[in-house]
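hey m, so remember when u said the tokens were messed up on ur end? i reran from scratch. heres the input so u can diff it against urs
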Amino acid sequence: MNQGIDQRLIADCIANQRVAQRRLYELTVPYFTIIAKRYLRNPEDLKDSLKDSYLNIFHKLEQFDPGRASFKTWATRVLINNCLKRNTNEKKTLRKNS
């Protein structure tokens, strides 16, 4: 997944360059899909979880520090946190409806 993801691509994404954001998406979505499927309880949540994760990644990209972690590690953590949050919210909804 790290092939093609460099600081220039990340800087272009921060600058809201849509071509760069599309490239980052294309480079990461196969890997993120596999990870999300492993974490989500409901497979129907996959598209929404990926969408929310990419929105968070692009929104928080300025916070990414390459000195602390690789982009793959940082972005995967954002994805996993979104999946876990979605599972928690789903569990709360199920309890209220029971």
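this time it looks ok to me. Helices lie at 7-14, 18-39, 46-60, 71-97. if urs says something different then somethings off w ur setup not the seq
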